[in-house]
Amino acid sequence: MRQAEVVTTSPEMTVALGESIGARLRVGTVIDLRGDLGAGKTHFVRGLALGLGIPSGVRSPTFTICQLHAGETPLLHVDAYRLEDPHELLLHGWDELLPRAVVAVEWGNRIDVLLPSRRVRVSIEHAGGESRRFRFEGLSDFEELAGVIHEA
Ligand code: ADP
Ligand code: MG
Along the chain (152 residues), what's the average pLDDT of each consecutive run of 10 residues? Predict the structure, then answer.
């Protein structure tokens, strides 16, 4: 399985989905999040952080572009929405941080050129009311995804 779909029906369920996936992630995993404003990207990342056992809360990093959350497995949370040029991220230590953290990128499409081909793409769509459809794809034979989503 290289693709999976999950529908959540509340913000809390999205956080819980992120949490169960986050608990299984290892350093070096890149999560490329796509979806409109209000899709639930930040809620999902909040869940990832909980699953990784990161004590500090995750906020929308729109105005700071990227935030590194320390922990046993650190989480680098990037929001590329306001990034004029993807290469600005290099000034934030992107290259050094990539192999040392779980990396979650909101608006991943805006930094396509910097994303490794081996990553998990999560596309989120509104599915009526408080329903959101999450589509997970392991890019470049990211087989680990199968286990992660299956057990979540
Ligand atoms: P994004 O980061 O994609 O812009 P946020 O996670 O910041 O989105 O916000 C999602 C918004 O949608 C919140 O206001 C949240 O309460 C609402 N919402 C409604 N249903 C859901 C759901 N199933 N999952 C996540 N958020 C939801
Ligand atoms: Mg957001």
Answer: 85 96 93 96 96 83 80 94 90 92 95 92 96 90 65 64
Cα–Cα distance for residue pair 138/83, rounded to 1 Å = 25
Q: How many CA atoms lie within 13 A of 131 on its CB side?
A: 7
| 40 Cβ below 6 A of ligand 1 | yes
Closest atom of ligand 1 to CA, residue 43: 6
| DSSP β-ladder status, 119-126 and 132-139 | antiparallel
Q: Is 130 in the pocket of ligand 1 (CB under 6 A)?
A: yes
What is the Å distance from ligand 2's center to 119 Cα?
Answer: 19
Contact 107, 34 (CB under 8 A): yes
The SS3 of residue 131 is coil
Q: How many whole angstroms separate alpha carbon 33 and alpha carbon 141?
A: 18
